[in-house]
Each structure stands twice: as structure tokens, then as C-alpha cells.
Amino acid sequence: MTPRELALVPVAVALNVAMGVVVAQLGLPVYLDTLGTVLAVSLAGLRCGLIVGGVSQVVAALNVGAFMLLFMPIQALVAVGALLACRAGGLQSLPKSLAWGAAIGLVGGAASAGISYVVFKGVTAIGVTAVVSALRAIGLPLAWAVTGASMSTDLVDKLLVLPVAGIALRALPLRLRYRFPLVQRATGLTG
Amino acid sequence: MNELRGPQHPWTLPSVVLSVLVLVVVVPEPWGPLTVALAGAVAALVLGPAAVTVRAAVVCFIPWVFLILLHGVFGEAPRTSVVGLPLSKAGLATAQAQGARLYAVLVWSLLAIARLDPSRFLDAAATSGRGVSGSLALVATLQAIPRLGERASRITAAQRARGLRVRGSLLARLKALAPLALPLVLGAIIEADDRTATLELRGASSGRPRTALQQVDNPTWERAVRWGALALALGALGWRALR
Is B76 a member of any domain? Predict the structure, then answer.
């Protein structure tokens, strides 16, 4: 790993975890645990984003059980989606961030639903499982309930992650922005 | 760390956890996951700290309730009566097996993290002569998490003192997200930039092997445990594929 990756990975992973503190204080039904991954991709490229996603899941596994390692592909999908968004200037404005957030949320949610159904039998994080239970209570089959819950929660989550990342990157001081070419491309700001 | 019995090398228990992750999925229900869970509880009681057996049960409690709800209550017929509740027979079996899997993975994971000494982990990587960047990233991450968590709480307190409302309608709470998240994110990016310069100054990009502060013993029996865990996981996967 390069010094930049070595410095960015711990901070970005810690950001993924710290956002959990922020949303818990606000009582929001989302996780925002991929914000660090999206920022890492914007600042240091796909490889760094993949490492951040992987280490994030390892840290989650250490805290809530090694099953969390099975969600590593979702972090990888988010990293790839963030790279595409950055290259396409997807963080230039709020509408563009929302559109990319929706796309990444739907893809990530579909993949997450598959893992939740096959490996976890529908029982994962408390918020998502509560939605699954509600959908089962109105008569939906388990597979559809898991898909609906995963896709809706991931969609809402990424609809917040991408705009927050965009606003933060656009607010970076000029001296920092000049050091990250992908940030300039993602936000459409050249200083 | 010295008062804990059993494996002392920081890679041994994480290797066992990875093996457990494979085993609980491939061993046959209902006894397979239960056995792995029981083995984890016994390992925690014997090796210590024993408290992880209780902590794992506490963390698993809500998922267990949801498993019974989703598979027992909402499951298919035929049904059986459990403390007066008509529950799906097949659903109960699924809930029991999945509940045992969750507990097994959690108790082994908590045991590994409770016994993990980050500096020994880094020294073990340096002693092995392989690259340390992966271990350094993991250890630095474990140190950064409480720091950023604390900073998030401080930012919330400061913004609330300035009049930010963090309660109320969903829209009001969403509006409060940016004033809380942005200082945290910008501070994190600036911190990473400063650390990049520090690491470069300390020769992190030189590519030379790092010197271990303390040599970490890697006894034969611990190496055998790690290879055994790998063999067990591969064997279970092979057995499942051939079944």
C-alpha cells in the first residue's frame, strides 16, 4: 500500500463506523456505513475503496460476528459504483448525486437481498429485519419480503451517502482539491 | 494477555474463526451448527475471557426473536404448539439451526477480538518477514475508530450548543445530518492528508521490511492449529460438494 492509502484506509473505515454514531444520535433509519468507501474511491481510486470496504467488513466482523465478511461484495459494488459516479462527474450537483445514489442503492440492495435470504434466512440488521417482518405480516413470501426490505433500505441509505460525499468533496479546501484529480473530475471543480 | 490460556500467537484464533465461518454453513443441521456453537462456548470458558459467552447470547437475543417470528410464526404448516403458540415445525428447525450458526460465529469472533493485542498482531507480521501494510492498516483502523467516534459525539454536542436540533420530525433530523457529518468528514480527510505526509517522512514508501519491536513466538502446535483449521474448512467444503 502507498503512504496515502495507509493513511486514508484507517480514517475512511473509522468514518464508516463513526457515521453509525451520527445516525444513531439523529435516530435515522439508515447506516451510512459506506460513506468512507465512497470518499476513499474519490480521493485515492478504486483499489483504496476496495481495501476500505474490505477492512470495514473485517472490523464489523470483529464486533458483530464473522458473518459480516459475507457482505464484502456489497462494499465492493459500492466502490465500483462510486468510481463510475466520480468518472461521470456524478458528484457535481445534488440531482446528479441523488441519481447515482439511487443506482448504486438499487444494485447494492439487490445483491444484499440475495446474501440476506440465502445465508441469513432473512434475519440481518435489526432495522432491515423489522421491515422484513412487517412485509411478511402482510402476507408477502419471505424471498419477496427480504428483497423489498433490502432494496428499500439500501436505496434510502445511498440516496444520503452520495449527496453527503458530494457536498463534503465540494467543500474541500483548494490546497487539498489540487492533490486529488478524481475529486476534481467528480465534483466538476477545478479551482 | 499472559493470564489467558491457550493460543498466544495473534493469527491462531482469527484462523479458527474463518474456519468456523465455513463450518457452520456446510455442516448438517441440526447438530452441526449446535456442536460448533457449543465448542465456541466451551473454548471461551476454558481459554477466557468467559464473559464472551454471555455477550454473544445478549447480541444474538434480538436476531433469535426475529428468527422465531419470521420462520416459526410466519412459517408454513404443519404446526406444533410451543408454550401455547402454534409454530411452524419446519420454521422452528430453520430458526434453531440459524440461531446456532449466529451464536457460533459470534462467540468465536468475540473470543478472537477479546484476545487480540494490536501491537502483537503487527509484530507477528513483522516477525514473519512478510509485508506489514495490511496489518498496519488494520491496527491503525482499530485505533482510529474510537477517536472518530468520540469526535462525532463532540461535534454533535458543539452543534447542539449552537442551536442545532437533533430531534423532531424525520425531515428535521435529515436537515441536521449535514451540519454533523460535514465537519467529521472534512476533519477526517485533512487528518488523512497530514498522516500521508508523516508516513512518507518516516519511510513508509521505502519498501524495506519493518523491524519487529518484539519477536512473536510461533510454536509448532499453533501452526498446526492454523493449518488444521484450514484443512477442516476445506474438508467440510469438499464433503459438502461430494454429498
Answer: yes
